[in-house]
Amino acid sequence: MYKNILFATDLLKEHNHLTEKAISIAQKFNAKLYLLHVIELPASFQLAQGLGFTELANPAKDDAQTVLALLGENFNIPLDHQFVEVGSVKEHIFSKVKELNCQLIIIGSHSSVGLHSFLGSTAHATVNHAPCDVLTLRL
């Protein structure tokens, strides 16, 4: 059923626990698991990048790649299954799903009030617009 699974992680404090759940799900389906972290920059950074200041995102991306590599090493997820992108979370998730031919997106949800807050705005957008199945994990 699921051969390729994309786990979109925000690398917050619960990322180890959620990664364990994503790995367990991938193992049950004998699927490949890919990790994706997207750094969504504030509008002011996007404007600066539009003006040619592209180096602004590099320190944050380098830090995220280091954290993701440690996470991957801890859970035996190969480097070629780990991705850090800068830009729109939703667009990068959907792009990776298409590129990797994923049949399932796993994403964490950690908010608690209202519809958008029930899932979180990223999870809500992903659930409503994804080109494949989406599983949300609660913290």
From TrEMBL:
Pull one GO CC term from this UniProt entry: cytoplasm
Domain UspA: residue ranges: 1-138
Q: Which InterPro entries match?
A: Rossmann-like_a/b/a_fold, Universal_stress_UspA, UspA
Q: What is this protein called?
A: Universal stress protein
Under the heading Pfam families, the entry gives: Usp
Tell me which species this is from: Fluoribacter dumoffii
Similarity section: Belongs to the universal stress protein A family.
The answer to whether the entry has keyword Cytoplasm is: yes
